[in-house]
Each structure stands twice: as structure tokens, then as C-alpha cells.
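so ive been stuck on this for like two days lol. basically i have the seq below and the ligand is S-adenosylmethionine, smiles is in there too. i just want the complex predicted, nothing fancy, no docking runs or whatever. if the output looks off dont worry ill sanity check it later, just need somthing to start from for the group meeting slides
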Amino acid sequence: MADRDREKWDRKYRENPILREERSPCRWLEEYVPEGDGKSVALDVACGTGRNTLWLARHGWYVDAVDISPVALDILKERAKEAHLDERIACRLVDLDRFEAPRSDYDLIVETNYLDRPLIADLQTRVRPGGYFIVDTYLDHPDNERETFQSDFLLQAAELPLLFADWEILAYEEYPNEDETHRMMKAGIVARKLPTLFEEE
Ligand SMILES: C[S@@+](CC[C@H](N)C(=O)[O-])C[C@H]1O[C@@H](n2cnc3c(N)ncnc32)[C@H](O)[C@@H]1O
């Protein structure tokens, strides 16, 4: 499976110039994520060519950027180097189907345009109390222009808040995308992990 996924995504990145263009980060980063304080660490899940990673690094964050496509990661490394941000970004070639996050105390995890429900459940344990989790990806919706998506890879309406039922939800919206190749409905959530309650002695 991993080899097939890697080949498929490498081919997409090689053959589709639009996928290699520099793109704005996911809207929630600009709206909700504070400046990094020099120690803040984020995980960008299925980072692609790094639109979110690069934004975070520019805003003072250290980022673990993980993806299965060496072609996408090479583009990200090149951009990071050009922008003198390479010291802030650790690119890792991983198969998310068999991924163990390198830390358990991320200040932020961001997963955009990629959906793996069991992975979200696992990664929720990798955010420190008070840290953030942002998910923003495609919804199963009759108005979607692209119908070839497997429904496993699409969110259902109102599903994300249920996945984050134990978290403080700072924002949730279902909305039509902009600036992407196909008109699609998306859903995005910004959630904050509630602080752990310690029992008084
Ligand atoms: C639609 S792109 C999203 C890229 C980026 N998150 C964004 O929002 O621009 C999906 C990404 O998932 C990566 N991917 C797909 N299957 C994967 C897997 N099993 N493990 C790691 N990455 C994977 C692809 O290489 C691709 O870069």
C-alpha cells in the first residue's frame, strides 16, 4: 500500500504543475494560531509541499513536516532553504498508515486536505494540554464538483465536532472552498486540548 501511495503522489506532484505552485496556508492558521515563542513545535500531517509548514516556520514555529511523497518533500526543502527557514523545519518521509509521532507534547497539530480518522484519534494524544489541533478537509456533499473521492476520505456533515467532543472548540465551519482546482465543500475545526485536571492531595 505504501509503495502504491508514494508512487501515486509522486506522479501527481511531478505531472501537475498546479500542485507544485506556492499556495496560501489553510485559513485557520492565519486566523487562530499565535506567533511561535521560539520553542513552539507543530506537526504538519501529510504536509505536501508545505504551505502550512512554511507559514508556521515564518511565524516562529518549529515544524515536523511529514509526508509519503519524496517529490513533495524535496520541493518543501528547497523552499525552506531559499527562505532560510530550513533550521526550523524537520522533513520526514513517512507512511501515515504506520506512523508513530516523534513527540507527545506538540503545541499544534495540523492536518489539511487529508483524512484518516484513526490517525486523528492517535494524534489527539500527542498534543500537550492547552495545545491546538486543526483539521480542515473535504466534506461529502452533493454540490462537490469532484465525485471520484472515496467516501472514506470525506468528512460527514457535523462529524468533526464529534471527533473533538472532549476538546474546547474555538471554531468550526462547513464552507465552499476557494482557490482549489475543483469546487468542493469543506469542513474545518480549530480545537484546544483541555488542561489536565489534577486531583488535590
Ligand atoms: C491533498 S495533499 C494535501 C497536502 C497539504 N496537507 C495541503 O493541505 O496542502 C495530500 C497529501 O497526503 C500525502 N499522503 C497520502 N497518503 C499518505 C500516506 N499514507 N502517508 C503519508 N502521506 C500521505 C500525499 O503525498 C499528499 O502530499
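The mean pLDDT is 94. The beta strands are 41-45, 62-67, 89-93, 106-112, 127-138, 168-176, 185-192.
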